[in-house]
Specification:
Elements lengths: L7 E7 L12 E5 L6 H9 L17 E6 L3 E5 L10 H16 L7 E9 L6 H13 L3 E6 L6 H13 L9 E3 L8 H12 L2
Parallel strand pairs: 2-4, 2-5, 5-6, 6-7
Antiparallel strand pairs: 1-3, 3-4
């Protein structure tokens, strides 16, 4: 399948589950904590500078954003988690919205892959591990993308990779990709994984 990444648009920013799209098109969701680089990765994959909006304040956005990629694929940007200053009401809204994506999504069978982002400088947070455990239990396919690798030296990279690979929460043989939106490292590898899953 060939995808024209010049033919991309924001289809909808869904604030509740009733707005989730019903188009019979495969979905690839992007999950991670606030400020981990989800919007930056989406922009990098699509060769854009500002299609996916990078929030000036972490945790500010609580919507599920559906990006139409050439009418062949939806990139789904899930709201970031783990933002400490979020109010209890906003935390509940986030929880209901993300849980709803997996439990009330009319096209859940078309969710081909979750790209789970982890900050390479920090490693897995408890929220990351909770999300991974949730996907394990729900049998959701996922890969791990370690972001901001340009900020690590060689020794730090080796240590980060070792910690990412050896965590017992991961499914066996989980794909882990090192990625940087600054250097474009990992862009082709992420696309290869996405195409592998949507073409199954």
């Amino acid at each position: 399948m060939k995808i024209n990444t010049n033919n991309v648009s924001l289809k909808i920013s869904a604030g509740n589950a009733s707005q989730f799209l019903r188009d019979p098109i495969p979905q690839v969701a992007f999950s991670g904590r606030s400020n981990v680089g989800k919007s930056s990765l989406i922009n990098t994959l699509l060769g854009r500078n500002s299609l996916a909006r990078v929030s000036s304040a972490p945790g500010k956005t609580i919507t599920v954003n559906f990006y139409d990629v050439d009418r062949k694929l939806f990139f789904v940007d899930l709201p970031g988690y783990g933002y400490a200053k979020r109010t209890a009401q906003d935390q509940l809204r986030w929880s209901n919205l993300v849980d709803g994506y997996f439990t009330k999504n009319p096209n859940i069978d078309l969710v081909k892959l979750v790209v789970q982002l982890v900050d390479s400088r920090i490693g897995y947070t408890n929220d990351d591990l909770d999300m991974i455990e949730y996907m394990n239990e729900a049998d959701v396919p996922y890969i791990i993308v370690a972001t901001k690798t340009d900020k690590l030296n060689k020794t730090e990279r080796e240590k980060a990779v070792r910690a990412l690979i050896t965590n017992p929460v991961l499914r066996e043989n989980t794909t882990i990709i090192l990625c940087s939106s600054q250097t474009r490292e990992g862009k082709d590898d992420v696309w290869n994984e996405i195409m592998k899953y949507i073409e199954r």
